[in-house]
Amino acid sequence: MSYPVFAVTVDLVVLTVREGELQVLLVRRGCEPFLGEWALPGGFVLADEDLPTAARRELAEETGLDGPGGHLEQIASYGDPDRDPRGRVVTVAYLALLPDLPTPTAGTDAAEAEWRPVGELGLAFDHDRILADGVERARSKLEYTPLAAAFCPPEFTIAALRQVYEAVWGETIDPRNFHRKATSTPGFVSATGASTEGEPGRPARLFRRGEAAVLNPPLLRRGA
Amino acid sequence: MSYPVFAVTVDLVVLTVREGELQVLLVRRGCEPFLGEWALPGGFVLADEDLPTAARRELAEETGLDGPGGHLEQIASYGDPDRDPRGRVVTVAYLALLPDLPTPTAGTDAAEAEWRPVGELGLAFDHDRILADGVERARSKLEYTPLAAAFCPPEFTIAALRQVYEAVWGETIDPRNFHRKATSTPGFVSATGASTEGEPGRPARLFRRGEAAVLNPPLLRRGA
DNA sequence: TCCTTTTCTCGTCATCATGACGATAATCCA
DNA sequence: TGGATTATCGTCATGATGACGAGAAAAGGA
């Protein structure tokens, strides 16, 4: 039995919250095609490598860490025959959510790496569409899961968690209602007992991510 | 630049509601590997073919129709190095939802085709996991979209729509509350003006699928 | 024709989640 | 010591939901 030959890549939508907005990790391409243009980080899947393994490897190569507190999940696959001028390449896109923390962004393959606010960025290949799908996935997942904590360090305040929602959704949220929701939804967050020190204002209690897989009831955004 | 060589397939989780339960279309494999075992329908992506096109082609080959009222979306991709003994094969799984209507299920490639209630079925390859992911996707999408109508003919009653929910979720739903919800949620369904005739009981008004992409507010199941 | 059965459709009520917003608590800083 | 700032708790009206009652409109049988 004969069948067409493909190459398979993984591409990463690496998101974080920096400076109060949702940002994505981009690399400047160091080889053809699209040499010199901005693109999502990614690369070919190796001969004996599972898909999630390839995604984690690329993430480690591009960001230096996939540490705890992060999150990695598959978005979708893209296989238009014309999407890569080198030939028939199917890419499996992954979504990674990371806290802002020390992220060197010193790429191995790529000439440069940079955080950029999400939006219409004019990326190489079909990466604008992949980015849009990844961002929408992240926005949607924040509604139904405690995943916003993946953008935060292991211990965080309710206010920090709220600012993640505000950055990802691009909306302002009432702090008092959000506090009630976060602390009353089972499995959303769990208190550590500790509090912040040295910050202005009243000290805030510190929390960790809760054990729930889904929020019940969910935390719906107003926009849609 | 050299890179590993892959084959790419599409596999289909074709779901319908028959006899009050959620059922999946299976085929008995007519060639190695797993000859004679039950599997999801699918096949290799052709050399010049887009992924959704390949999925639609396979669906047409296996079921005879992808007609209006149906729905097709990508689930995810599966690429474990050992998932196919023939070599390195990545499969892109698609979810298809169809009304029960005349579905011949006379396969072209496959020896036999059959509807089976979803569950632990002992399928070939990693198809049990793909099926589980597809079923969970369908269950979840019913909460947030008017997609249940994809299981119904173009015009349907509220009761028929409710029975779709009950079959897919495996729960019983109060007919009066469901009626209120379906008719009061904007874009869920739209009345045709016609009614059923010849059925026992009071005639029911007929509806079409609404234009909304998402249900606001959603229709949440109790289980999770 | 009349009654029963069946199913659809509309209402009622208590409860819960939510948005809007007031008020208090606990820290830092001048 | 007295703001300024931020966290936390409370109140209230509104809307969505689950549980359930009751009427409406057909088919079918005596």
UniProtKB/TrEMBL annotation, chains A, B:
Q: Where is this region: Disordered?
A: 61-82, 184-203
Residues covered by the Nudix hydrolase domain = 3-137
The record's annotation in CDD domains points to:
NUDIX_NadM_like (cd18873)
Comp. bias regions, Polar residues? 184-195
Q: List UniProt keywords, sorted A-Z.
A: Hydrolase
- UniProt superkingdom: Bacteria
InterPro entries listed in its UniProt record: NUDIX_hydrolase-like_dom_sf (IPR015797), NUDIX_hydrolase_CS (IPR020084), NUDIX_hydrolase_dom (IPR000086), WH-like_DNA-bd_sf (IPR036388), WH_DNA-bd_sf (IPR036390), WHD_NrtR (IPR054105)
Q: What is this protein called?
A: NUDIX domain-containing protein
